[in-house]
Amino acid sequence: MEALPRQPNMAGELALLLVLATLWGASYTFIRVAVATIPPITLIAGRTAIAGLLLLIIMRWRGVRMPRDAASWRRFLFQACLNSVIPWTMIAWGERILDAGLATILNSTSPIFTFFLTLAVSRHESLTSRKLFGVIAGMAGICLIVGVQAMAGFGEQLTAQIVTVLAAICYAGAAIFSRGFKGLDPMAPAAGSLLCGAVVLIPLGLVVEQPWTITPSANSLLALLGLAVFSTAAAFVIYFRLIQTLGSVGTTAQAYLRVPIGVLFLGEQLSPTAWVGLACVVIGVAAMTVPERKTKPAVA
User: Fold this and answer.
1) Handedness of CA 34, 35, 38, 39 (dihedral sign)
2) By C-alpha distance, which of 237, 231, 223 is closest to 191?
3) Strand-pair partners of 157
C-alpha cells in the first residue's frame, strides 16, 4: 500500500513564516547601511551573487544537484526577474522619492495582487471567502499601524507610487510562478534564481556604476554580507519551501507581518489604533494561512 504524503506541521510552517518576515524586514536596515557607500545596482548584484554562491556550496555539501536542463534555467531566469531584479530595482528607485509610511503601505500590497491574480489567471489553489477576508483584514491592519494619514500623499509623486505598486505585482507573480518548482529541493530554485539575477545585474552594474571606482566602508560591506547571507540566501530557501506548504497567498502574508515585526523590534510605543491594526494583521494572516478543517461526512 502506497504511503500517504506527509502533511506539514502547521505550527512549524507558521514559525517559518515569521522567520521569513523578520529576515526580509531586516533587509531594509541592511540596505540603508550598505547603500551609503555602495551604489544600488552594485549592491543588489553583490547580494544575489554572494547568496547564490553560498547556496551552491551548501548544496554541494548536502549532495543536492542543480538541474542542468535549459528549461529549468529559463524558469530560474524568469523567476529572478520577477522576484529580485525588477522589483528590487523598482523599490530602490521608488523609495528615494516616497515618504516611508506610504512606501510601506504600497510595498505591502502583494497579498492582494496574489489573491486576485490567482483568482483570475492561474487558479492553482482554492480561494475561499476566508482568505479574501484575511487579505482585506491584513491590509487594513497595515494602514492602521503605519497611520491612515500616510495615504494623504497618494496621487502625488504618482510615477514613484506606480513603480512601487508594480514591484508588489512582480512579487505576486513570482509567488504564483514559484509553484512550478514543486519537486525540487527548495535550495535549487533559490540558488538558480539568485545566480541568474547576478548574471543580469553584474554587467549592468559594471556599465552604469563602475564599481571599481568606489571605496565601500567596513559598515557597508558588513551590511552587504548580512543582506546576502540572512535576508537573501536563508530567506529564499524558506520562501520556496513555504510556497509548497502554505501556498502562494499564504506565503505572501509575510508582507503584512514585516511591518508589525519591525515596529516591535524597534521598541516603538504603539498607539491604540496601531494595536487594533496589529490585531487585524494577526487575524488576517491566520485567515490566509491556517487551513480550514475538513468536516467528516455524516454516517447514515
Assistant:
1) positive
2) 237
3) 155
Residue type at position 295 = T
Note whether 228 and 51 are within 8 A (CB): yes
- Mean pLDDT score of the chain, rounded to an integer? 84
Task: Evaluate whether 248 touches 239 at the Cβ level (below 8 Å).
Answer: no
Q: How far is CA 227 from CA 23, 30, 32, 97, in A?
A: 9, 6, 11, 23
Q: How many CB atoms lie within 10 A of CB 185?
A: 17
What is the value of pTM for the model shown? 0.83
Burial of 284 (0-12, 13-18, 19+ CB in 10 A): buried
Answer for the pair 193, 76: CB distance below 8 angstroms, yes or no.
yes
DSSP string spanning the chain? -PPPPPPP-HHHHHHHHHHHHHHHHHHHHHHHHHTTTS-HHHHHHHHHHHHHHHHHHHHHHHTPPPP-SHHHHHHHHHHHIIIIIHHHHHHHHHTTTS-HHHHHHHHTTHHHHHHHHIIIII--S---HHHHHHHHHHHHHHHHHH-GGGGGGEEEEHHHHHHHHHHHHHHHHHHHHGGGGTTS-THHHHHHHHHHHHHHHHHHHHHHH-GGG----HHHHHHHHHHHIIIIIIHHHHHHHHHHHTHHHHHTTHHHHHHHHHHHHTTPPPPHHHHHHHHHHHHHHHHHHSPPPPPPPPP-
**Distance (Å, whole) CA 180 – CA 188:** 12
Copy the grid coordinates of residue 99: 515618504
| Closest of 81, 88, 111 to residue 41, by C-alpha | 88
The pLDDT assigned to 3 comes to 42
The whole-angstrom separation of Cα 172 and Cα 215 is 36
Mean pLDDT confidence for 15-23: 91
The three grid cell numbers given for residue 271, joined into one nine-digit string = 498607539
Q: In the prediction, which pLDDT does 197 show?
A: 94
In this predicted structure, which of 13-27, 40-54, 136-150, 253-267 has the lowest mean pLDDT?
253-267
What is the Cα–Cα distance from 120 to 214, expressed in whole angstroms? Answer: 46
